[in-house]
Amino acid sequence: MKLFGLRMGSVNTTGKHAERLHALFQQRPDLEPLFAPLITSIEALEEQLRVSGRLLERRAAADPVCVRLMTVPGVGPITALTYAASIQDPHRFARSEDVGAYAGLVPRRSQSGERDTLGSISKAGDGLLRRALYEAANVVLSRVQRPFALREWGKRIEEAKGTKRARTAVARKLAILLHSLWLHETEFRWA
């Protein structure tokens, strides 16, 4: 609609969205037949996303492991289900730190002779799990307001090394924390 000089603005609720569209179409009635099918399609997609989101929430709430994992700030149903499906058995890892490597969140190493350099993350492993943990880390650093040790540690890294490195580091720590909670059958404690 920007091409035609109309700006939708930031609208989050369905009622306000329809009200804003009606106001815009009164300014340019010739555009309504052009955009009506597109708007109908977008509304249908949004409804399907809401239905899928509720289904994922119910599925995660029914799984005791996912319920335990969702006690961690930033970890929602999608991250919990992805983590549980990727790891499957927490006993297959000798140490919780190995889960970070499994997700490809450890530095790449280049060794030859006396040379030993660390590069960017290896990205070897489960890409879906890596992305889910990265998004959860993003939520921890940007949306969670209540202070806790992992968030404060990530904020210090963010100041020193930048946002992307901080998110990657927090994602690796989240992988370790989630594995530990699952293995020991405990819930997250804020203290």
What does this structure look like?
- Helices cover 62% and strands 7% of the residues.
- The chain has two domains: 13-58; 64-184, no CATH class.
- It has eight helices and two strands, in the order αααααββααα.
Entry summary:
The chain is mostly helical and 191 residues long. It has helices at 14-27, 32-62, 64-69, 77-87, 98-102, 127-142, 149-161, 163-184, and strands at residues 107-112, 115-121. It contains eight helices and two strands, in the order H-H-H-H-H-E-E-H-H-H.
Number of strands: 2
Number of alpha- plus pi-helical segments? 8
Task: Spell the H/E element sequence.
Answer: HHHHHEEHHH
- Counting helices, strands and paired strands, the structural category is mainly alpha
The whole-angstrom Rg is 22 Å
Topology record:
Layout: H1 14-27, H2 32-62, H3 64-69, H4 77-87, H5 98-102, E1 107-112, E2 115-121, H6 127-142, H7 149-161, H8 163-184
Antiparallel strand pairs: 1-2
Task: Name the features.
single chain, mainly alpha, two-stranded antiparallel ribbon, 8 helices, 7% strand
